[in-house]
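In line with agreed milestones, the collection of sequences with tokenised folds has grown. One record among many is set out beneath this paragraph:
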Amino acid sequence: MATAQTAPPILRRRLGGLLRQYRTAAGLTLVPAAKLLNWENTRLSRVETGQYQIKPDEVSTLLKGFGVTDTEAIAEVTRVISSGQRAWWAAYADVLPQTYADIIALEAEAVLLRAYFPQLIPALLQTPAYAHALISSSPRAATQKTATALVQVRQGCKEILTRPTGPTELRTVIDESALYPRTGSASDLMRDQLLSLLDMSERPNIAIRIMPLDAPLHSGLTSNMTVMDFRHPWPSLAMVDHTRGGVFLEGAKDVDAFTEVFDAVYEAALPIDESRDVIKKYAKGTPHA
């Protein structure tokens, strides 16, 4: 998590939205709420829209003034705002679109990720070689230096799955077609990627299911998706990925809709043990054995 001075915009916006929610629940307009800190109402308005950084003690004053007594929520909001760790991805700002940086910031705070990306191995499970081959094929990666930097970012993101304390839980569905070597890809590149999938699937916080080639049509075919869950009181959100980052959907109805679709896709895929068997066959080069 970044310091208060370098908090990613997406986290500032989410904090602002949470404060606005508490303020309206308390029946306060901007003017009397801002007076809790001897502020002009325009300043609080900027905080609520994520344009202005707020300090931990100021957040505490507002929460108290809004009558918030949920100790778990207060502790979690304070943790996020008070964190003194600089965002590691800030060093790659010259190659990272802001929306991509927002995704990284959100993933770092998520407790559960549910992800489905047709045709590709999910980014958080990609080996450096697989990621490099994929990133290098994009027009954005105009230079070897840029591609290498983006691969380093992608590998850095994976730490959330393997950190010793509180690793993020990942549930993902991978289409069987994504296990096939792409034309022009070295066979050892794909084999190493598949072996890495098997290793990662051994972790208790990672569940990988394969959608078989003969699966019937399902609702997940319409788009990729990620649903992120966070510690209380932060609301869940859904994301649709695209070349420049992603579109975030934070409305409860939107999140519920994507969660419903993912759950249906997850249940339609092969069970975890059968999925591992399929990956093993592809790694051995005998998918139809």
Q: What stands out?
A: DSSP finds twelve helices and six strands in the chain.
